[in-house]
Amino acid sequence: MREPLSRQTSIPLSREELIRIRAKAIRRGVWFRMLTKSERAQVDLTIRVVQKVRSFLLARVLASLVKKLLDAMESKVLRLMREVGWSLAKKLSSAAQKWGNASATRWAKDPSFTQYLTIMHMNTPVMFKL
């Protein structure tokens, strides 16, 4: 089973999707903080002129800008689940399996367990982290 939080998202390059991402980025306060004036102008101009992006060069430029916005809008818990939580779940699952717990094989793939471990990791004082 694949990890549900893998970063295999497609970059939306239609006018409607760009408008939706821009509105969400403005609401979350990311639009002006993460993009320069020229980057914002590129997205705005694309929204005004193009219905669907067909140019490979424009798609590549917009993909990097949209990825920057999506990364900035991702919640801290989801990011840490991807970076820390899944590896913690795998380690705990492996240890429990060595101790004889047969049901522990499911722990490594359980998003709820991974979220629990991630939040516990977030709330652990720095002096206790390895």
In short:
The chain is 64% helix and 0% strand.
Describe this structure as you would to a colleague.
This protein starts with 14 loop residues before the first helix and ends in an 8-residue tail after the last helix. It has two domains: 15-73, no CATH class; 77-128, no CATH class. Helices cover 64% and strands 0% of the residues. The protein has 130 residues and is mainly alpha-helical.
Structure keywords:
single chain; 130 residues; mainly alpha; 2 domains; elongated; disordered N terminus
The shape is elongated
Q: Number of helical segments?
A: 6
* Number of beta-strand segments: 0
Mean pLDDT: 87
Order of helices and strands: HHHHHH
Radius of gyration: 20 Å
Topology:
Elements (H helix, E strand, L loop, with lengths): L14 H13 L3 H4 L2 H13 L6 H18 L2 H23 L12 H12 L8
Helix pairs in contact: 1-3, 1-4, 5-6
